[in-house]
Specification:
There is one protein chain. This protein is an alpha/beta fold and about 350 residues long. The chain has 2 domains: about 220 residues, Alpha-Beta Barrel (TIM Barrel); about 55 residues, no CATH class. Helix content is about 40%, strand content about 15%. It is built from 15 helices and 10 strands. The strands form 2 sheets. Strands 1-8-7-6-5-4-3-2 form an 8-stranded parallel sheet. A two-stranded antiparallel sheet has the order 9-10. Helix 8 links the parallel strand 7 and strand 8. The N and C termini lie far apart (about 45 Å). The model has no long low-confidence stretch (mean pLDDT about 95).
């Protein structure tokens, strides 16, 4: 295990300037995971912690969770608002109002277009970071007026979109197409990933799986130990046939979902297997076969369970070492440059 890093060199990018943070490291807004303790620990270390709005059962509960976060840190943090088309959608307007009334000025949107919410957030000085899985969607989000985008490569946990473009191509493609700051997401766990993302044109990184395996993540220890013990081969892509691909942990439930859909099944055939309540049981009870749960390919690079703040500092320090190592490979002697 790495020695704790007490301090880390400050890394300035367009993202740190935009958000008023020290380090361009953002915690993903994970369902059932983005609670006060984790978000505050990331922000307190100089990154950007994210409270997940819909983890809270009501807008009033979200307001209380934001207040709990504020008691743990006086540094900037944001709120994730995932917008998904459902038969009975959550009261998005009320969650949105709770965010603004609580004084939060950074919101990460995901899922559907943030357009219906942009006017309200702009009127209240909220900077919106929209999560996208393609360059075309990122460009559209920029036109809508978001302050930044977070772009998810195919390696990510959860929904990677349907284009199957990994970060090594997606990040520089986004850099060529965007003028606003953007965050790389998917497959990132350490300083090598941060250094690579910056070299490819990103202004910072967003990590979900790595923070899922942190001390403050409110999930069962069995989940964290499974991540540490797993490789990059231990995920499954489900819902491919439904054009709603999701990357989840490989277990008996995800294998059954893949089998049923491959044999011609439809969503009603797998709906009982993928119910959110079952996935929540995984995180809360540590029953790794209770349901599906999201995890990225990056689990193959996670070697330990560590405090979230230590992870932020470690990653930034590692990135500096990587950049200096690569710079040292160049021969800058007069004979070489002449």
């Amino acid at each position: 295990m790495s020695e704790p890093v007490r301090t880390a060199p400050r890394l300035r990018t367009r993202l740190t300037g935009l958000l008023g943070i020290e380090h361009p490291v953002v915690q993903g807004g994970m369902m059932w995971v983005g609670r006060a303790e984790l978000a505050a620990a990331v922000s307190e270390a100089g990154g950007l912690g994210i409270v997940t709005a819909l983890t809270q059962p009501t807008p009033a509960d979200l307001a209380r969770e934001i207040e709990r976060t504020r008691k743990l840190t006086d540094r900037p943090f944001g709120v994730n608002l995932t917008i998904l088309p459902t038969i009975t959608p959550p009261p998005y307007d009320e969650y949105r109002r709770a965010i603004v009334d609580s004084g939060v000025t950074i919101v990460e949107t995901a899922g559907s277009s943030p357009e219906p919410h942009m006017e309200y957030f702009a009127a209240h000085g909220v900077r919106v970071i929209h999560k996208c899985t393609s360059v075309r969607h990122a460009v559209k989000a920029e036109r809508l007026g978001v302050a930044a985008v977070s772009i998810d490569g195919f390696e990510c946990a959860g929904h990677p979109g349907e284009d199957d473009i990994p970060g090594l191509v997606l990040i520089p493609a986004a850099a060529d197409a965007l003028t606003i700051p953007f965050i790389a997401s998917g497959g990132l766990t350490d300083g090598r990933g941060l250094a690579a993302a910056l070299a490819l044109g990103a202004d910072g990184i967003n990590m979900g799986t790595r923070f899922l395996c942190s001390t403050e993540a409110p999930v069962a220890e069995a989940v964290k130990r499974r991540i540490v013990g797993s490789s990059e081969l231990d995920t499954r892509l489900i819902f491919r046939e439904l054009r709603n691909t999701a990357r989840v942990a490989r277990n008996s439930v995800s294998e059954e979902v893949v089998r049923l859909l491959a044999e011609g099944g439809a969503f009603p055939d797998v709906q009982p297997l993928v119910a959110g309540a079952r996935g929540r049981r995984v995180f809360e009870d540590g029953d790794l076969e209770a349901g599906i749960w999201s995890v990225g390919l990056s689990q193959g690079l996670v070697r330990d369970i560590a405090p979230a703040g230590e992870l932020v500092r470690r990653i930034v320090a590692e990135a500096r070492e990587e950049v200096m190592r690569v710079a040292g490979l160049f021969d800058v002697s007069p004979a070489a440059v002449g």
